[in-house]
Amino acid sequence: MTEPHSQSVSEAQHEAEVLARALPHMQRYDDAIVVVKYGGHAMGSEDVARTFASDIVLMEQSGINPVVVHGGGPQIGAMLSKLGIKSEFAAGLRITDKATVEIVEMVLAGSINKQIVGFINEAGGKAIGLCGKDGNMVRARKANRVMVSSGGDDAQEVDLGFVGEPDTVDTTVLDQILGRELIPVLAPVAAAVDGGTYNVNADTFAGAIAGALGAKRFLLLTDVPGVLDKNKQLIPRLTIAEAHALIADGTISGGMIPKVETCIYALEKGVEGVVILDGKVPHAVLLELLTDHGAGTLITR
Ligand SMILES: Nc1ncnc2c1ncn2[C@@H]1O[C@H](COP(=O)(O)OP(=O)(O)O)[C@@H](O)[C@H]1O
Ligand SMILES: CC(=O)N[C@@H](CCC(=O)OP(=O)(O)O)C(=O)O
């Protein structure tokens, strides 16, 4: 046998061993619902988005029921600036006036949603793009005003406009879709309880969906390796109590606060485990679900 041939046999053997090691993980998640929040920063390049889409199809083919909830903050920002509409954030949430909510709906429920649906379908899946309005899935109430400090002592109360908090989640449509080889892809736009449209933070929307579906795992794909400690080192595991302590001492700040709070909400609603991980790492979801070492920060009760 020549050297190159023996090498390729051993490589193939290695690949077979990797596949075999995935079996117990596949069995653990057989028929389980896994909600994956795909953040706007994690979308990165088209190559990364296509790899993500094929991983979602592989999950579905392995007997897992994936539910994708996507964000698109940077993409909304780009469209608003193209149109000359100024946009500001308060407490990590976009202050959303009437003109902005129309663009948010257009970008999230329109272009981004259909792009992800397209990539999943090109990878051999059958994705269905929906937003919270479809089938009355998520109804939202107006978000509370938030306190924003302007540097000095004088904190100001800010009205976020058309920003909503999930009020009720009706899973009828998702119950019809899941378990039938279909992959729901959800945009975080919701109907207002009193009519109209609300812009909902994608993490919050995904947490509400994961909680209502009683998902086994809730994965949040972002642009950092997970929750980092004060020395910027990855914290592989956290309990709810430890997460609260890290928020209180300032280790967790900015956009990571609503993310971790959403994780805590989902865990309290019965989700077994929540993982925050880097969506820009190729095959991040497969690494987490189907390998022994997992990825990111796992938060459990
Ligand atoms: N302890 C921490 N560990 C990791 N990231 C943190 C931490 N504290 C604050 N952050 C910030 O949170 C950001 C992630 O939140 P966000 O930008 O809202 O993500 P996404 O757009 O994916 O929803 C990180 O890029 C980082 O700047
Ligand atoms: C109220 C609010 O802030 N909504 C977000 C919705 C999109 C989102 O959350 O996208 P990421 O996950 O990519 O950040 C926004 O307008 O940007």
From TrEMBL:
GO biological process, alphabetically ordered: L-arginine biosynthetic process via ornithine
CDD domains: AAK_NAGK-C
Main location: cytoplasm
Domain Aspartate/glutamate/uridylate kinase, chain residue ranges per copy: 33-277
GO cellular component: cytoplasm
Protein's UniProt keywords contain 4Fe-4S: no
Keywords: Amino-acid biosynthesis, Arginine biosynthesis, ATP-binding, Cytoplasm, Kinase, Nucleotide-binding, Transferase
Keyword NAD in annotation: no
UniProt-annotated site: Transition state stabilizer, residues: 37, 259
One term of GO molecular function: acetylglutamate kinase activity
Binding site for substrate: 72-73, 94, 199
Family annotation (Gene3D superfamilies): Acetylglutamate kinase-like
Record InterPro entries: AceGlu_kinase-like_sf, AcgluKinase_fam, ArgB, Asp/Glu/Uridylate_kinase, Glu/AcGlu_kinase, NAGK-C
Purpose: Catalyzes the ATP-dependent phosphorylation of N-acetyl-L-glutamate.
Family note: Belongs to the acetylglutamate kinase family. ArgB subfamily.
Name of the featured protein: Acetylglutamate kinase
